[in-house]
Amino acid sequence: MTDRISVREAGHGTPLVLLHAFPLSSRMWRDQLDELPGADGSGARVLAVDLRGFGGTELGEDEPSLDLLADDVALLLDRAGIERAVVGGLSMGGYVAMALARRHPDRLSGLLLADTKATADTDQARANRERIAAAVLARDSVRLLVDEQVPSPLLGATSVQERPRLAERVQAMVEEASPEAVAWAQRAMASRPDSLDVLAEVRVPALVVVGEEDAITPPGDAEAMAAVLPDVVLTVLPAVGHLSAIESPDAFNWAVRGLLARVEGE
Ligand code: MLT
Fold first, then answer.
1. Is the peptide bond before 23 cis (omega within 30 degrees of 0)?
2. Pocket of ligand 1 contains residue 216 by CB under 6 Å
3. Given ligand 1 and candidates 49, 91, 182, 243, which is best to mutate, with the most ligand atoms within 8 Å of its CB?
4. 22 CB less than 6 Å from ligand 1?
5. Rounded distance, CA 146 to CA 127, Å?
6. pLDDT above 90 as % of the chain
C-alpha cells in the first residue's frame, strides 16, 4: 500500500468515493465535486482519489496490480473514518471499484460503474497495452496517448463536434500523466480478471452509466454488467462518449443522485 493517497474532497453527506479513468486524475471529477454536495454540503461527501502514479499520489515500487489500487482505497476509507461508502469508478476507475467489490465487499454501501466493463482483456488488448507501455517508457513521453486517444476515442462524436473546449481540457489532463504511471497502469489493467461473478454477488444498490457514443466500453458492456447485478439501474446518456462524467455532468450527476437516494433509503 502506498502511504499517501491524494484526494480532493467536498461535502459532508453520504460518502461517495470516485475513481478516475486512465490516464486522467481526480481532476476529471471537477463537476461532481462542485455539484453533488449541493448548496449546504449534505448531498454527498465526495472523495475523488488520485490512483497510484496519477495526480498527487506517488507511484511507489510495487508491481502493477489493480488489487493494490483497491487496497489503497480501503486504506483511505480507514484513515478517513469511513466504514462504508458508495464507490464509483469510470473506466479504469470502474475496474478498481470491481476489485474493491471482490476484495473488500463490506466497505461498499453502493456501487457506481461508469463507462467500464467487467470482462478481462483479450490477448489482442493485452498486446496493445504492452505496446503502449513500452513506447511511452522508451520515448519518455505520453504524446502517443494524446495522438491515439484525444479527442477520439476518449470523447464521443457529438462532444468532438460540438464541445471543442472539452478536448483541450482532456488533453491537458492526459499530458500531466507520467510515462511510468501510464506503463504501470496499462500493465495492471492487462492482468485484471473477469469480474462478472463478483458483480453477481454485489448486495448493495448499483448504478451502471454509459455514454451512448462510448467507443471504448460501448453500451453492450454496460448491459452485460447490469444483467448480473442484483439491484441495478442502467442509465444510457445520449450524445455522450466514454468520458460521460465530463461530457454530460448534469445528466451524470442526476443519475448519481438517484443512486445516493437509493442507498440512503436502504
Ligand atoms: C480508461 O478510460 O480508463 C481506459 O480506456 C480503460 C482501458 O484502457 O481499458
1. yes
2. yes
3. 91
4. yes
5. 19
6. 98
Nearest in space to 94 (alpha carbons), one of 260, 247, 208? 208
Q: Does any ligand 1 atom lie closer than 6 A to the CB of residue 189?
A: yes
Rounded CA gap, 73 and 179, in Å?
Answer: 23
Report CA(263)–ligand 1 centroid distance (Å): 27
Q: Is ligand 1 within 6 A of the CB of residue 54?
A: no
Work out whether strand 85-90 and strand 232-237 pair parallel, antiparallel, or are unpaired. Answer: unpaired
**Residue 72, C-beta contacts closer than 8 angstroms, at least 6 positions apart:** 1, 2, 5, 49, 51, 52, 57
3-state secondary structure of 47: strand
Going by their DSSP bridges, the two strands 15-19 and 85-90 should be labelled as: parallel
What would the grid cell of residue 118 be?
467487467
Cβ partners under 8 Å of residue 128, min gap 6: none
State in Å: Cα 40 to ligand 1 middle: 34
Ligand 1 within 6 A of 25 CB? Answer: no
Residue 19 alpha carbon to ligand 1 centre in Å: 12
**Residue length, the chain?**
266
Q: What are the tens digits of pLDDT across the range 12-40?
A: 999 999 999 999 999 999 999 999 999 99
34-61 average pLDDT score? 97
Three-state DSSP at 42 gives coil
- Best of 96, 214, 216 for a ligand 1 pocket test (most atoms within 8 Å of beta carbon): 216
Question: pLDDT at position 44, please?
Answer: 98
